[in-house]
Hints:
Elements: H1 3-14, E1 17-18, E2 25-26, E3 37-40, E4 43-46, H2 47-55, E5 64-67, E6 80-83, H3 85-94, H4 113-121, H5 127-134, H6 138-146
Helix pairs in contact: 5-6
Amino acid sequence: MDERKKRRHLALVMMDIDKTESCWNWIGRLNKFGYGLTGVRGGSTLAHRTVWEMLVGPIPQGMCILHSCDNRKCVKPDHLRVGTQAENMADASKRKRFPCRRGEANERAKLNTSQVCEIRAETNMTNVALGKKYGVSDVQIGNIKRGKCW
Length: 150
C-alpha cells in the first residue's frame, strides 16, 4: 500500500475509535467475542491488530497483540503489546477471564452435585453398574471416586 493510501486508510480507521476514555474504544463492527473488526485488504482483521500495525509497526509472524487493560474494544497502542499465544492464555488465566467450567458450571455436565455425592458414597456397586445408572462411563465414575474430577 503506498503512503497516501496508508494515510487515508488510517484516517478511516481512526474514525471508528472513541478516545474520550483512558482506553481507545473501537465503536465500529465487533466480532462475536467483542473484539473490534476492520476491513483490510478485502477481509476482516481484528481492529487492535490493524491499529498496532498502522501506528507501531509490523506484527511478527505467529505473534498476538495482547491487551493490558482487559478491554476487548481497546485499540490504544499504550494498552497493547506483542506476545505469544501461550502468554495470552497465561495472562487470561491469571486475570480470571476464563469462566469456571467445573462441576455443574460446565454446560456439558451430565451429573449434578447430589449425584456425585451419591456416587462417592456408593460402596456396593461396580463402576460399570454406576456408570449405567447415571449415564456416564465407568472411567468417569472412577475419576469421580478418586477425586480427579468434580
